[in-house]
Amino acid sequence: MRVIMDDREPEIIEKLLRRYGALVERKRIEVADYLVGADVCIERKSLNDFIKSIYDGRLFDQVEQMKDSCSVVIIIVEEPYFTVGVNARPHYLGALSSLALRGVSVVHVISPEDTARFLVYLAKKVEGNKPSVIPVRKKRKPRSWEEAYAVLTSFPTIGPKSAEKLLNEFGTLKEVFNAELPKLKRVIGEAKARKLKEVLNTPFRQVKETKLEDYG
User: Fold this and answer.
1) How much is the pTM?
2) Residue 144's pLDDT band (boundaries 50, 70, 90)?
3) What mean pLDDT, rounded, does the chain reach?
4) Cα dihedral across residues 153, 158, 163, 164: positive or negative
5) What is the CATH number of domain 144-201?
6) 3-state secondary structure string across 177-192
7) Which CATH topology does 2-133 take?
């Protein structure tokens, strides 16, 4: 089982990978943190960094770079989903839905040990079933309206019908977000409109980042 890891990744993960039986090669990787097989890119993030990268747009730039190099893209988030703050959760779920439409998997683990185990299991499956890594045909990129629809339905109280009404009325996601409350109320009702505005106008509160040393 061979795992290539970026030389900027923590040594603790290299030690754990070797402990679990992986052959590890450390070198500079520009597009991802780990490579497994010929066509699998893995990015490892703390939950705090993952959420920050959603807000500053860095996440999707990284994903596009990885997809240019690999057919299979996986993001490992080292913290459980339930620790995502209530205010950040709609944006987080919206990002997950957009990533899913791009064919990107997001895997939550709770520790560097789990990260190492996951990489080892992944390497075993890739090496044991190499043809499955290469897709038969290239998946199409999701249409922009599908991504906008997915983002809207990730907001509290906004279901498929409400999302469709909003996009039909305002045309684009940007216009929905910029719409005044009275206009939103006419389309989806007062309660849903107020909740949407509340979420959009709530400032982001930083999530406490888990440190590797916390795991011993």
Assistant:
1) 0.59
2) low
3) 83
4) positive
5) 1.10.150.20
6) HHCCHHHHHHHHCHHH
7) Rossmann fold (3.40.50)
